[in-house]
């Protein structure tokens, strides 16, 4: 039940006295029959919360990160369900992340099975050219993240045009700005891709304006997006003595 999971999450955060944390609910088939047919096993849920600084670092959020286009392609909808946030599918991202890390980059960018830009190992990607933001659509095997939707709405509320379409790899190198969004990464600029400097090598005006509004919404500093937030009840103080 969605409301039970919500209430359990709020209670877990409150009991641990966390003012800022990452939330990871996991829904899985529990103890039961072994094998490849899981439907006779019960559905179990666990929720983990922990303090987790910005996934790609505060310096990355401010100055931008270096990314590499991975040799690993994003999983195809002919094989699995890219739109599902399923644990097993993250092996695809793990392989791309390891490859980029070993090559000296902070993040990987995966292409889809048609060679179009898809997403990062754990983030959606946005390309800015001539003041217009372009981001891959559902046909590119993306995981349609909640932060992606939020960033698109924020950009449009700022009067910036956002287009969802297929993006060629070459467009990354020719872009004025590139940034990524994700629950752990938040909104992080990309300053370099495959040793190609993006724009002047610093986060651009569009990226900064969307990033500021995104951070304000995320941390409750604006009334405009207050409905996106779910307040956590303060933990009751222990009785004296």
Radius of gyration: 20 Å
Largest sheet, if any? Answer: 9 strands, mixed
**Which CATH architecture of the largest domain?**
Alpha-Beta Barrel
**Count of helix runs:** 6
- Helical residue percent band: 25-40%
Which topology of the largest domain does CATH recognise?
D-amino Acid Aminotransferase, Chain A, domain 2
Q: In sequence order, what are the helices and strands, one letter per element?
A: HEEHEHEEEEHEHEEEH
* Nearest-integer average pLDDT: 94
- By CATH's scheme, which homologous superfamily of the largest domain applies? D-amino Acid Aminotransferase, subunit A, domain 2
Q: Any idea what the shape is?
A: globular
Give the end-to-end Cα distance, rounded to a whole number of Å.
39 Å
Number of strands: 11
Would you tell me the structural class of the helices and strands? alpha/beta
Uncertain runs are none
Which strand-content bin applies to the residues?
15-25%
Number of spatially distinct domains:
2
CATH class of the largest domain: Alpha Beta
């Amino acid at each position: 039940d969605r409301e039970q999971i919500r209430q359990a999450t709020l209670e877990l955060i409150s009991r641990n006295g966390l003012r800022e944390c990452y939330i990871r609910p996991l829904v899985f088939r529990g103890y039961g029959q072994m094998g490849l047919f899981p439907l006779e096993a019960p559905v179990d849920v666990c929720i983990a919360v922990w303090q987790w600084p910005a996934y790609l670092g505060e310096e990355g959020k401010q100055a931008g990160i270096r990314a590499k286009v991975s040799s690993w392609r994003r999983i195809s909808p002919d094989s699995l369900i890219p739109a599902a946030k399923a644990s097993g599918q993250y092996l695809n991202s793990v392989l791309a992340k390891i490859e980029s890390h070993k090559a000296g980059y902070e993040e990987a960018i995966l292409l889809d099975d048609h060679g179009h830009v898809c997403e990062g190992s754990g983030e959606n990607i946005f390309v800015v050219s001539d003041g217009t933001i372009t981001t891959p659509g559902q046909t590119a095997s993306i995981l349609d993240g909640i932060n992606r939707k939020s960033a698109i709405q924020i950009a449009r509320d700022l009067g910036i045009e956002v287009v969802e379409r297929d993006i060629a790899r070459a467009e990354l190198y020719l872009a004025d700005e590139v940034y990524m969004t994700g629950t752990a990464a938040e909104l992080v600029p990309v300053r370099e891709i495959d040793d190609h400097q993006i724009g002047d090598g610093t986060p651009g005006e569009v990226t900064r304006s969307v990033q500021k509004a995104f951070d304000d919404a995320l941390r409750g500093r604006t009334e405009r997006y207050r409905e996106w937030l779910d307040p956590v009840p303060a933990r009751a103080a222990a009785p004296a003595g």
